[in-house]
Amino acid sequence: MSLTRRTLLATAAAVPAVARAQGTPTLKIGCLTDMSGPYKDLAGPGAIAALNQALEEYGVSGKGMNVEVLSADHLNKPDVGATVARQWFDRDGVDLIVEVANSGVALAVAGIAKEKNKVYLNTGAATSDLTGSACNANTIHWVYDTFMLAKSTGGAMVKTGGDSWFFITADYAFGKALQRDTTDFVQGAGGKVLGSVAYPFPGTTDFSSYLIQAQASGAKVLGLANAGTDTINSIKQAKEFGIKMRLAGLLLFLTDIHSLGLEIAQGIVLTDSFYWDMNDRARAFSNRLSPKIGGGRPTMVQAGVYSAVLHYLKTASAMGVDQVKLDGAATVARMKQMPTDDDCFGTGSIRADGRKLHPAYLWEVKKPADSKGPWDYYKPLATTPADQAFRPLDKGACPLVRS
């Protein structure tokens, strides 16, 4: 990929609702996401639409600021994502990077945001290392992480008899962190991990050999430490091969269930921190965004972009745009001081390690006969409160947390 200025601006998302008043300070926001790979549907263009929705609803032109939005495809390659981030910060004057949806890219971007004293708001990458060993004063981890997913979905599976596991794992930072964190919960509950296999990411579409290894292990649960189209393909092929193990989709999205269809997906247990039909505020937001994403419903990644950008804009109003542009770490510190509140996640807060707190919800995919129509896919099973959903603050080894 040739990362020329023309390439970047060709993918930029225009914000026509934002006026360009002469002399008004301009914030620049870059949405770095997967526009062409396995995470396109759960993030991608829908993430950009959610960003613009936040700008529109906040009414930035009436708040004494302009906002310019850039977007780019990181191709799920850390070196590509790092190059885009550096060019945005150094050459294009970008103040904030949001989204990413790839843990390897996210770790690289977080480091560059710290180096350049800019802001990175992660809504799509899952590795809990972003608030652990790799945490920094310029990064906030917004929606979910591997610890939350392991505790909610993995813990629920073990409680219902799934005490032996085999993992099929995407071979990069996300998959490794998800397998690690889930293994800790399984073993902590008295279960066993009987084996695992890592597959090349991205680019793998045939999971047959990995599924055969899993079945041969004798494990009761097949833990899918992957996401997006990889999870979709794994589940479809497991059904085709007649795999008898219980499937644990450790990171599943609404768009995955939509792609699979209820006939295949029914009964799957998953964790989502946002579901479009969970309450009145979530439905209202989803109805506003739906026409801008082709009539579908937003994923928790896309909801996270809206939520994170909205809080950033509130912080910019409180601090003043000039101060926000001047000091990314100070901006993040102010964001942590302010309570969060939006239609997607309700009220919440941000911890010292950069972990944004809100409840985690355990869902079961409905049977076809129980669904009232398109996108009516989940029924609630359990809720983990915000103060219990994520890794304890003193257990992550984040250097920002004083013992």
Describe, in plain words, how this protein is organized in 3D.
The protein is of the alpha/beta class and 403 residues long. It folds into 2 domains: 5-144 and 279-358, 3-Layer(aba) Sandwich (Rossmann fold); 147-277 and 359-389, Rossmann fold (3-Layer(aba) Sandwich). The protein is built from 15 helices and 15 strands. The protein has helices at residues 5-10, 44-58, 78-90, 103-116, 146-159, 173-188, 208-217, 229-240, 254-260, 262-265, 280-289, 300-319, 321-326, 328-337, 386-389, and strands at 26-33, 66-73, 96-99, 119-122, 139-141, 164-170, 192-199, 221-225, 246-249, 269-272, 340-342, 346-350, 356-357, 360-365, 378-384. The strands form 4 sheets. A 5-stranded parallel β-sheet has the order 2-1-3-4-5, sandwiched between helices. A hairpin with a 5-residue loop joins strand 12 and strand 13. The chain is globular, with a radius of gyration of 20 Å. It starts with a helix and ends in a 14-residue tail after the last helix.
Gyration radius from CA atoms, angstroms: 20 Å
The first-level CATH class of the largest domain is given as Alpha Beta
- CA-CA gap between termini: 45 Å
Largest sheet: 5 strands, parallel
* Order of helix and strand elements from N to C terminus: HEHEHEHEEHEHEHEHEHHEHHHHEEEEEH
Q: How many discrete domains? A: 2
CATH topology of the largest domain: Rossmann fold
Number of strands: 15
